[in-house]
Amino acid sequence: MSFSGKYELVNSENFDAYLKAAGVGFAKRAVASTMKPTIEISENGGVYTIKTFSVLKNTEITFTPGTEFDEETADGRMAKSTVTIDGNKLTHVQNLGDETSTTVREFNGDKMTAVFTCKDAVATREYKKLHYCCSNILAPNNKSAKMSITGRYEMISSENFGDYLKAVGVGMIQRNLAEKAKPTVEITENGGRYTLKTLTALKNTEINFALGEEFDEETADGRKARSTVTQEGNKLVHVQKIGGDQSTTTREFLATEMKATFTAKGVTATRVYKRL
């Protein structure tokens, strides 16, 4: 049976109690319980990779079934882990010191059910398999329609952008110039690789990426970042890591517009663009 594919969370029960039993702190539990992760599973020559994408953090494990490996959990703890295959199930056992937790992922058609167990706590999360390709995604309000990410978008409104720029460390002069600019964003795709250009009278920027792969990025004000862009339904989630700081831009694509939400250090800004 093939386990490969992308799966989006659609339902979650008792996950906070499981995280508490596994030793995850209150603040991280509160954030994790609100996330809607996408899981990507791939296989190459008997070696499997499971990637978990969320706005908070992306994680990745690579393993050969039945062979123990080192794993860093989403909250930074180190585990000795083993994944085995039993029919249509992947059983993932993590040993963290004196504690053991088990995740059983069961695959049935377009559905994956994950059952998490630690001590006496049991949680269940259900995922649906995603069926989209390249630059097309399912429109959220019409299951039979498809919407393209690619295109040109012109900004029509902006809220709190100056505060966001201040939070990420942009200087006052550059903040003032950036707030006055009215950018056009152009997105193209070729063979699974995306190009996102931001065009203004002040400065043009460009990034090239494949979904889920980390890349080097230079910000508009010249700082160097390690970035990753992932897809969650009708959204592109762009995470930038600069030193010890992180900022996230979530671009949501609707029929006639793109809405970008920028977040860093508790500050949130929103910009709306019309599709040209």
Automatic annotation (TrEMBL):
Keyword DNA-binding: no
CDD domains to which the protein is assigned, alphabetical: FABP
Domain (Cytosolic fatty-acid binding proteins): residue spans on this chain: 5-22
Domain of life: Eukaryota
Keywords, alphabetical: Lipid-binding, Transport
Keyword Protein transport belongs to the record: no
Signal sequence bounds: none
PANTHER family: FATTY ACID BINDING PROTEIN
Function, as annotated: Binds fatty acids in a 1:1 molar ratio.
Family: Belongs to the calycin superfamily. Fatty-acid binding protein (FABP) family.
Protein name: Fatty acid-binding protein, muscle
Native organism taxonomy: Eukaryota, Metazoa, Ecdysozoa, Arthropoda, Hexapoda
